[in-house]
């Protein structure tokens, strides 16, 4: 329901506008809300409580400018895309839950266009069946992928796609759709030389960052054939 380039542009502008917004709005305090915001969002998502999702999304954001680009403008794009396609053919559209509720959500926009929408209720969810499905793994074959400049090598089951055009960060990703997983390589400019940092200083920062910010459990960590480049699974 979105054009990738348009979506990426809006997200980049949203973070830029949010940064400017924070500079103009001083002493913004969120209290202890962010400590349990993730749990509240997960609970609302599981219950299908769109009103709560809308309230939490608005409450969690510190920047109205961010919501304008990241959420509302993208909602408009999705609603107009659904409207244009459904006039010609049948359509199954999947959008993120946060894009659905609210006066400027996709549901209300479609209703204003004249469409009739109704919820589909799901009951009797089978937890045992879900556990069995989660255990299923599609076989993949790993092969070595080398960066164009040979700065790193990594084993992945497919070709990495460059989807980030930011100057400071280069991200390469392969989506393993059959298993609901993805492989991501992030290349970040350290500016170590201008900061007077050694290779050991940089590696210490990388080690700390991996420990703090990588979700789940790191099952292995080793250096690639290129010095000081970690390879993680």
Radius of gyration: 22 Å
The largest pleated sheet is described as: 3 strands, antiparallel
State which percent range the strand residues make up.
5-15%
SS elements, strand count: 7
Main β-sheet, spatial strand arrangement: 3-4-5
Helix content: 40-55%
Provide the structure class: alpha+beta
From the spread of the alpha carbons, the general shape counts as globular
Number of helices: 8
Q: Can you give a write-up of this model?
A:
With 233 residues, this protein is of the alpha+beta class. Helices cover 45% and strands 14% of the residues. It is built from eight helices and seven strands. The chain has helices at 4-24, 33-47, 50-60, 64-86, 106-112, 127-135, 192-195, 199-213, and strands spanning 143-146, 153-156, 161-162, 169-176, 181-188, 221-223, 230-232. The strands form three sheets. A three-stranded antiparallel sheet has the order 3-4-5, with no helix packed on it. Strands 1-2 form a two-stranded antiparallel sheet. It has a two-stranded antiparallel ribbon with strand order 6-7. Strand 4 (169-176) and strand 5 form a beta hairpin. Helix 1 packs antiparallel against helix 4, helix 2 packs antiparallel against helix 3 (50-60) and helix 4 crosses helix 5. It is globular, with a radius of gyration of 22 Å. Mean pLDDT is 80; it is low at 27-33.
């Amino acid at each position: 329901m979105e054009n990738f380039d348009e979506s990426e542009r809006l997200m980049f502008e949203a973070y830029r506008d949010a940064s400017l917004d924070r500079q103009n709005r001083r002493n913004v305090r969120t209290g202890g809300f962010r400590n349990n915001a993730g749990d509240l969002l997960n609970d609302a998502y599981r219950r299908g409580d769109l009103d709560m999702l809308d309230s939490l999304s608005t409450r969690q954001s510190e920047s109205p400018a961010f919501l304008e680009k990241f959420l509302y403008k993208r909602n408009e794009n999705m609603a107009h895309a659904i409207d244009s396609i459904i006039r010609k053919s049948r359509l199954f559209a999947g959008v993120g839950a946060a894009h659905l509720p609210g006066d400027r959500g996709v549901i209300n926009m479609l209703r204003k266009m004249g469409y009739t929408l109704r919820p589909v209720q799901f009951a009797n969810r089978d937890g045992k069946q879900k556990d069995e499905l989660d255990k299923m793994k599609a076989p993949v074959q790993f092969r070595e992928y080398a960066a164009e400049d040979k700065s790193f090598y990594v084993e992945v089951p497919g070709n990495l796609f460059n989807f980030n055009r930011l100057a400071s960060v280069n991200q390469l990703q392969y989506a393993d759709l059959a298993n609901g997983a993805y492989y991501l390589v992030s290349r970040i400019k350290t500016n170590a030389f201008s900061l007077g940092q050694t290779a050991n200083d940089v590696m210490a920062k990388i080690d700390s960052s991996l420990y703090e910010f990588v979700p789940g459990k790191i099952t292995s960590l080793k250096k690639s054939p290129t010095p000081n480049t970690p390879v993680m699974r």
